[in-house]
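Milestone M4 deliverable, item 7.
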Amino acid sequence: MSEIAHEITSQPACWARAAEVALTVRAELPQPGDRVAVVGCGTSFYMARAVAALREAHGGGETDAFPASEFPFGRSYDRIVAISRSGTTTEVVHLLERLGSVPRVVVTADPGSPVAELAETSIVLDFADERSVVQTRFATSALAMFRAHFGQDLDRAIEDAERALTEPLDPDPTRFGHVVLLGHGWTVGIAEEAALKLREASQTYSEAYPAMEYRHGPISLADPRSLVWIVGSPDPTVADDIRSTGATVRVASLDPMAELVLVQRTAVALAEAKGLDPDHPPHLRRSVLLP
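Output delivered:
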């Protein structure tokens, strides 16, 4: 079994532990009314987008999400939250070094990493660290912790993830050469992360959009070799319009994080079908370190 396959299967247990962590760090995480920016790179940025949308939806206060390299230093925030599995990503380190006196919270898997040393508070999810270059359980565990902090009960998500680990992959992913993920609200970040997993682990041509944006141009690429996976949508007719192109549509039936588990499994299955190593994609490392 590949490392990523093992790490995918461990996610329900990791989410339960992350919910427990949320109870112990409640005072360190952003409080209601705080103006907050959540930052990260790659997978961590997509989780930041999901966290920001969730926090605002739960009335926590104005929350923005940025790639660390695109942070707007001219804006004022009460707290910055940085998500970084390795804690060494250059863009995140440089951002934290330049923030001055703004309170900083980092969520990482390594308590001795540079980002941990640059923040007032470090939340360490070392139980979710990974050997695979491709992130799965750390990212979803960080999101699970924030969902619990915002008051969500994760029991259904954990149950759905257990189902996602055992149910057959339907439709058969090897039938498709093009996969599109669609989301709405906080699940836009889930859709973007799902598409990234397919690109990284299996070199699959994949895209992600807010569901209502898909009809504004990207649908022109849909054809019978396309799989469009709707993680979330405010309009059920989106699926009907996509089916009219000949594309296959899957509409999520599980918790969005459990749907992401299915996509992760799909990425591994496609990598194995292509004879690829899903743990070590070409040109990628565990952390991006710049000169």
